Fold MFS transporter.
Amino acid sequence: MKIVGPSLGGILVASFNSDIVLIVEAFCFIFTTIILSFVHLPNIRNTSIEKVQEKKKYKDELQEGIKHIYNNTILSTAIVLSALSLFIIFLCDGLLVILSKQIGFNEAAFGIFVSLIGFGSLISSFVIG
């Protein structure tokens, strides 16, 4: 969504008032809510005893998973580095707005700019494998 969404949003903001774009987004959320209301979820009934056993089982599995991550240095290092890199990426995404204003981008150019970042990420993931 980081390819089509930002460029479409930039074009809409450049073509129309930003208030209209927010109204369109609100209608999209309402439409999505209506569609999701038709999704059938199976009815799951748990007695209180089953709920207590399920909570204990969940806690045991969670503790086991945390111990496994803690004891596996490769896995714990990968998780920490992934968390740090995602933190930096999202921090830079927020700063791109300030940078684009300093450069003089309008809304459409900023949308295309963010779309190109998403497209580059997609291409690099295919190249890297």
Observations:
- Residues 53 and 112 are 52 Å apart (CA to CA).
- The helical segments are 4-15, 18-37, 48-71, 73-103, 107-128.
